[in-house]
Specification:
0% strand
Length: 73
């Protein structure tokens, strides 16, 4: 990791995984999947907006994170 918070690293990694499978996959599609607006996701990924507790819980559930990743997230 390069100093970014764990949740940002994890979200960026997940987007990249999906883009590797489907090069046309977009951050807009990912934000729709997570149930948040694309601008909100963009601000979270750029670390200019904090991730709310409710959004964190929603993301953890959607991405089916492991217990260890849940704790770090």
């Amino acid at each position: 990791m390069d100093g970014k918070p764990f949740h940002i690293e994890l979200l960026q990694s997940e987007i990249q995984k999906r883009k590797d499978t489907n090069p046309r996959y977009s951050m807009r599609a990912f934000s729709r999947y997570l149930g948040m607006g694309p601008s909100t996701l963009s601000r979270i990924l750029s670390n200019s907006q904090d991730l709310s507790l409710s959004a964190s819980k929603k993301i953890i559930k959607k991405l089916k994170l492991s217990p260890d990743d849940r704790r770090l997230f």
